[in-house]
Amino acid sequence: MSDYLENEAKEEVDSLFKQGLKQFRSSQYRAAIESFEESRRIYQQIGNRQGEANSLIVLGNIYSSLGQYQKAIEFFQQSLAIKKEIGDRNGEANALIGLGNVYSSLGQYNISIEFYQQSLAMFTKIGDRNGRASSLNNLGNAYSSLGQYNRTIEFYQQSLAMFTEIGDRNGEANSLIGLGNAYRNLGQYNRTIEFFQQSLAMFTEIGDHNGEANSLQNLGNAYRSLGQYNRAIEFYQQSLAIYTEIGDRNGEANSLIGLGNAYYCLGQYQKAIEFYPQSLAIFTETGDRNGEGNSLASLGNAYYSLGQYQKAIEFYPQSLAIYTEIGDRNGEAKSLQNLGAAHSSLQQYPEAINYYQQAVNIYESIRRDLQELTLEQQQSYVNTIKPVYTRLAQLLQQQGRNSQAQQIIELLKTR
Fold it and tell me: SS3 of 415, please?
């Protein structure tokens, strides 16, 4: 190819790449895939390795957004190989972040943390503050999923400060969502809502529909935690509509499970059961193990509330196995306490005590990780888990094991 034709092809493909980015940012995923597949082909044809790798990395991000994780991994790995070959350290770090995001979506948080730490080290070395902030934010996401909220808050605060300093509104909004979720897990719901409202305003302002839907969904979660179930349903319906429109299968499934949970809290258990199998099917299809675990646990809860304890016991061990596999300590503890409640309702008290004791052991391990938080924050978390300790103590007393019951109650004191 002559230099003239090559330059012309380069101008044409650069324009196509920009078009693809615009489509991706406005959540037009199918159109963006076409643009980047074509740009990748042309870059390859003219021997532009950098352009080819950049097209691959964006394709990885798009397929990740669509919940097609195996495909995303392939694109990120191809991009990573080219970036290493041409010595593009920044591109290499971005490919590592992409891989971390996919493994996080697959519930493999320890693997994702390894990728994020590699990207953080690389961005720090080359002085890329935006990249550093992204890596810190992603580390916050991963540690949140592992129930390590103290580390979570540290990472989000660092990423928020950095994104604010460099004027990255999208990054700022994502850090706010992360902080909102961390405080929600600690039971500080009003503070949570403030963070989500700020992120919603930012995402709306910059026209990020995916971020907008994410903020709406999280507001639904927060209002559900506050007992405002009808308000939560409104937010879930809004997020579901946006996710369906932009083709985000994972977001769709999370909104469906949110709707199921809100109807469950309103005591409409049969209606809740309509939503959970839909979310379970999507999560299974996309390979989201955490989502699968949540759907199974929710089905167990719905059948438990209908008095179908034996049916509930079918679902809880499945959710427990998934949470244990992916290292979600909070989910693991909740599945164990649910098994305790179901066996207790069937008057199978020794089994119930065993499951409640295992749940308390996990909650104690989470509490040990929270000791650097303020006493108020620690107490807020204790309030969310207190009913489990109280129920275990009651069961122990019924069995005449009074000294053990007293020991469990003593654990509730903030240390």
Answer: coil
pLDDT at 3: 52
DSSP 288: -
Sign, CA dihedral 159-163-169-170, equals negative
Residue 4 exposed, middle or buried by CB count within 10 Å (0-12, 13-18, 19+): exposed
Q: Which CATH code for domain 1-87? A: 1.25.40.10
DSSP 6-67: HHHHHHHHHHHHHHHHHHHHTT-HHHHHHHHHHHHHHHHHTT-HHHHHHHHHHHHHHHHHTT
- How far apart are the C-alpha atoms of 415 and 405, rounded to whole Å? 19
Q: What is the pLDDT of residues 142-171, one digit of tens each?
A: 999 888 988 999 999 999 999 999 999 999
Q: Which two tokens mark 208?
A: 């990020």
DSSP letter, residue 207 = T
Can you list the residues of the chain whose pLDDT is less than 50?
Answer: 1-2, 4-5
- Least Cα distance to 408 among 353, 346, 352 occurs for 353
